[in-house]
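F.,

This is the one I mentioned.
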């Protein structure tokens, strides 16, 4: 079996397929756009996967650092301003990962809404008018 990342030619989608692309994009940004034949799905997936990787790697680093310094932050002589300043050095990278994922997710959501809207227009144009 051969696996390829090449896009299929863009074709009109049914409403059911368009909604499937939307739910796929909500779960994993970019992949629903790729299913619909949109090139923007590559960027969306790269932002989402990159954001998850940055968050996991640097988030784990932050958690280990935080528990290693627990007594310093929760002692009676702890300085909250000093603790926040030091904590910022470790938490800024996981927050960047959250931001990257969020941008990819919002971009995928906007693309999904365009896909559903275009499927609705395509399907309604193909349906004959109702007889009364």
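My design for it:
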């Amino acid at each position: 079996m051969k696996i390829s990342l090449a896009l299929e030619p863009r074709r009109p989608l049914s409403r059911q397929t368009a909604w499937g692309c939307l739910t796929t994009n909500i779960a994993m940004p970019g992949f629903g756009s790729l299913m619909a034949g949109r090139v923007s799905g590559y960027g969306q997936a790269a932002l989402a996967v990159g954001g998850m990787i940055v968050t996991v790697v640097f988030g784990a680093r932050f958690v280990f650092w935080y528990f290693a310094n627990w007594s310093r932050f929760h002692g009676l002589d702890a300085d909250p301003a000093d603790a926040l300043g030091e904590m910022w050095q470790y938490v800024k990278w996981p927050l960047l990962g959250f931001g990257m994922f969020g941008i990819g997710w919002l971009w995928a959501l906007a693309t999904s809404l365009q896909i559903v809207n275009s499927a609705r227009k395509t399907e309604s144009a193909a349906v004959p008018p109702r007889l009364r």
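The chain has five helices and no strands.

Talk soon.
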